[in-house]
Design goal:
Elements (H helix, E strand, L loop, with lengths): L8 H14 L3 E3 H12 L3 H5 L10 H15 L3 E5 L2 E4 L1 H5 L3 H18 L9 H22 L2 H15 L2 E5 L10 E7 L2 E10 L4 E2 L1 H11 L6 E5 L2 E2 L1 H7 L7 E4 L1 H10 L4 E5 L3 E5 L1 H5 L3
Parallel strand pairs: 6-8, 7-9, 8-10
Antiparallel strand pairs: 1-3, 2-3, 4-5, 5-6, 11-12
Length: about 290
């Protein structure tokens, strides 16, 4: 089988800048990625390829993350709040892909001296991103090792920690894709939110988002689709399609971050950088 080729992170840098310009200069990671994928014209096969064999995100997503990091190193973008990225003045005014490439090369020359204490072939940024990926993949691997029912109950626990009320797992044969329901309270109003859990190693497609929305028909208009894998750009666009009930997507990398944030299944020791380890005792309650 022919190897699926993915553009390098460096070649994605200009796609990210163009995507952010289209979005007005500031946007969420998901918005930037969807637009950058469209601008780059990445195929469905490219989007479905996972980073390494057991990673928690796609290769395209991983390289787009690196593209944003490299742009930040160049002073072309910033991340003023978690999950949000903005173009700097230089990011708005830089003219073309060649200028971005030349700027990055000059920054790397300066970084080489700073990174002299890092293992050969690795910069400080590489070590930090790979360390994050390591604990995240370990957590996702534990989640994938659970039975479908246990994964649904872990999702229930997470939703309770986040603040959802009356969270119930309803998944059973014939449930038509609905694994549970919770109540979301906004001021004096309360809404049912239906959720589906997908213990995936690959990417969830647009058709699966449509199927989930179809399962919600007649029950409610707010859905949550949780996966240990990723979502294609088509799935993200389908989840937010105009005129259809929105479906909130929680990919594996975001799921891992939420579990870390609420200290579910992980132990976090903060030194100069976070040291995250998997808490095996948490999962024993679900097996």
């Amino acid at each position: 089988m022919k190897e699926i080729e993915i553009p390098s992170a460096e070649s994605m840098m200009w796609h990210v800048i163009e995507a952010m310009r289209q979005l007005g200069g500031s946007a969420s990671i998901a918005e930037i990625d969807v637009n950058a994928i469209g601008i780059g014209g990445y195929s469905e096969d490219q989007q479905l390829k996972m980073h390494k064999e057991s990673a928690s995100e796609t290769e395209v997503s991983y390289r787009l993350k690196w593209a944003r990091t490299k742009l930040k190193m160049c002073g072309l973008v910033s991340s003023p709040t978690r999950g949000t990225w903005s173009l700097t003045t230089s990011g708005f005014t830089i003219s073309n892909e060649d200028q971005v490439s030349e700027l990055y090369k000059s920054v790397i020359k300066k970084q080489d001296a700073v990174s002299s204490g890092a293992p050969q072939g690795q910069s400080i940024e590489t070590i930090e991103i790979d360390a994050e990926l390591e604990w995240r993949d370990a957590l996702i691997a534990r989640l994938r090792a659970l039975t479908p029912s246990s994964f649904e109950h872990v999702t229930k626990r997470l939703l309770m920690e986040i603040g959802f009320k009356d969270v119930r797992v309803t998944g059973k044969p014939g449930d038509q894709g609905i694994d549970g329901v919770a109540s979301l309270q906004v001021l004096l109003l309360s809404f049912p939110v239906y959720f589906q859990c997908k213990k995936y190693e690959g990417s969830v497609s647009a058709s699966e988002v449509r199927d989930f929305r179809g399962a919600m028909a007649g029950r409610g208009e707010k859905g949550l689709l949780v996966s240990t894998g990723a979502f294609t750009s088509g799935a993200i666009q389908e989840a937010n399609r105009d005129g259809a009930p929105p479906v909130q997507l929680v990919p594996g990398d975001r799921l891992a971050e939420l579990m870390k944030e609420h200290r579910l299944g992980v132990t976090v020791v903060t030194r100069e950088v976070e040291d995250v380890t998997i808490d095996g005792s948490f999962f024993s309650a679900f097996t």
